[in-house]
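Hey L., structure's done. Input below.
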Amino acid sequence: MIPTTKRVRRIVAVLAVPAILLPVAACGSDDGSGSSSSDGPVATVSGKPGEQPEITVDEDADVADETISRVLDEGDGAEVAEGDFVRVNVVGRTLQGDMELINTWKSTTGEELSPDEGPSPQVIVQAGAESALPATATEPLIGQTVGSRIQVEGGSVDMLGAAAQQGGIPEDDGVVWVFDIAGAVSVDPQAAAEGEQAPAEEGLPEVEAPAGEPATVTIPEGQEPPTELQEQVLIQGDGPEVTAGQALVVQYTGVTWESGEPFDSSWDRESASAFQIGTGQVVQGWEQGLVGKHVGDRVVLVIPPDLGYGEQEQGGIPANSTLVFVVDIVGAA
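Output:
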């Protein structure tokens, strides 16, 4: 459980996906090849990449039986491979119910975001894999390039997974996604920080991190938790500096200071985790502690309640808990 903010938990609730993989439908091209639908996309998309797209729907058209995708604009960046973590701006809406599912160009109150306000919140998906969206929805991103705008259409179940029923969207409705690919990175699911680990600084927890396993964190005996954010780079990586707005791919283990017991670890899921940093999508302790670090770093963060979950109990973590995370930064884009 990456320590996300309430805003991101609302997005994840809307775009929830089941643990079982959905069957992958064939993807059509802009000329209809590979798709059983002769009608092509139901939605028409206008606008330039980087700007909020305008979507109009042909109300008389039927939703295609299979997934249809088309490249609206081709970028000149790196090619997206299967399994890559991809940072996207995205608009999603139903085809018949006229329901907007997500729009990263807008705030949670529906106002357009200004680039002057800093990096805009974006969504991190894993191309062709179950992530924030079903694999069926993101498979058409494979082979496309960073900077491209891609339109993907299909039935509501294929495009949303279990969230279609949870959101009351009929099975015979469809969904259109418009993705602007802003960045992508390939990461080994078992990647970890490598190098000699520094001893813990005075007052900070001791960390043992066996290869491929959750870290063991030993809280200083008898010591009160700090009231301000504490951090230490245990292993210094030689990758690029992490900047606000990037997709960050990490391995991590989290424990509470009060018990020393782990409440979550990416290692238990046998895959790295990804999120956007510097846009308010994770708790402030991660925002403040990870921006400016480097890919390849192992960082220990001790996060007081006011920079974590505060007075709210969260997923079994008691209210007013001080959180301790060991974070390996294994990729960024």
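Helices lie at 6-14, 135-138, 156-160, 162-166, 284-290. Residues 8 and 281 are 6 Å apart (CA to CA).

-- N.
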